[in-house]
Design a protein that fits this description.
This protein is of the alpha+beta class and 261 residues long. Helices cover 27% and strands 18% of the residues. It contains 7 helices and 8 strands, in the order ααββββααββββααα. Strands 1, 2, 3, 4, 5, 6, 7 and 8 form an 8-stranded mixed β-sheet that branches. Strand 2 and strand 3 form a beta hairpin.
Length: 261
């Protein structure tokens, strides 16, 4: 049983369609930026404002102590997400307000992605696809009148295909940026009055990892990704190994066993 089947008694990977995105900005921008600056100190931060959706993307540069990029959204929390079609919606009211983040290697060519007006240009796709993915997912709850949370998986199209020619990833899964889920733990953003903005790490995955998640659940995949060294399973890294690859000789042994049967 997967994470959401266990929590709510139903699968939550299917998203309704047909709702227009409203052009609004989050009122929590100052709190979100202060939170990330405290969590990842000493970094230069570039903020991109997407004129089409008013979704903002912040990209924090690597440091010598922490040689990786941190990218996060500001705008998904502008409107509470729709939980009304969920069992026990009131009990999980805190899930309505969220933002997304990503970890990228320090050598990722972020400067080649350009600003938000360039993210859809074909010649920038190899560098820009993680930021395009962040923006697309952050708009999804408003556009489709639904919600995103830990354990959700979103394939890249149907059938799923890689985000760019230079990457093996063809879908993404969301995880809480908890201990062991990346280079460091990141807490939710306190916005006053006992309220908070939940943060989810967007992790691009191999087709085999997506299949594994759908069969065994998000927690099972989370444990597999944690087994990769130094939190690399939660980075956007085209060269990272697949967390669920078969052991050497396993496929041959399985084929021989099936033939014998």
């Amino acid at each position: 049983m997967g994470f959401f089947e266990e929590l709510f008694g139903a699968k939550q990977d299917e998203m309704p369609r047909g709702v227009i995105v409203h052009n609004v900005k989050t009122p929590y921008k100052a709190q979100i930026m202060a939170h990330f600056e405290a969590s990842f100190p000493g970094r230069e931060t570039q903020v991109w404002d997407d004129p089409d959706t008013h979704m903002e993307l912040a990209v924090m540069a690597p440091t010598e102590a922490e040689p990786y990029y941190v990218a996060y959204t500001m705008g998904m929390s502008a409107e509470p997400m729709t939980l009304d079609n969920m069992p026990h919606g009131k009990k999980f009211e805190w899930l309505r307000t969220a933002e997304l983040l990503m970890f990228l290697p320090g050598d990722w060519p972020v400067e080649q992605a350009g600003g938000p007006e360039h993210l859809n240009e074909p010649d920038r796709k190899a560098a820009a696809w993680p930021l395009r993915l962040l923006r697309m997912l952050a708009c999804m709850p408003r556009r489709q009148k639904t919600w995103l949370g830990a354990g959700h998986s979103i394939p890249n199209g149907e059938p799923a295909h890689p985000y760019a020619e230079n990457t093996p990833f063809a879908g993404a899964v969301l995880f809480l940026p908890a201990q062991k889920n990346g280079p460091k733990e990141v807490q939710p953003v306190n916005i006053g009055g006992g309220r908070r903005v939940v943060l989810y790490t967007v992790v691009p995955v191999y087709p085999a990892e997506m299949d594994y998640k759908l069969e065994f659940g998000a927690e099972a995949l989370e444990h597999k990704l944690r087994e990769l060294p130094a939190g690399s399973g939660f980075f956007v890294d085209n060269s990272r190994p697949c967390a669920v690859e078969a052991e050497p000789g396993q496929e041959a042994r399985q084929a021989a066993q099936e033939e014998a049967e």
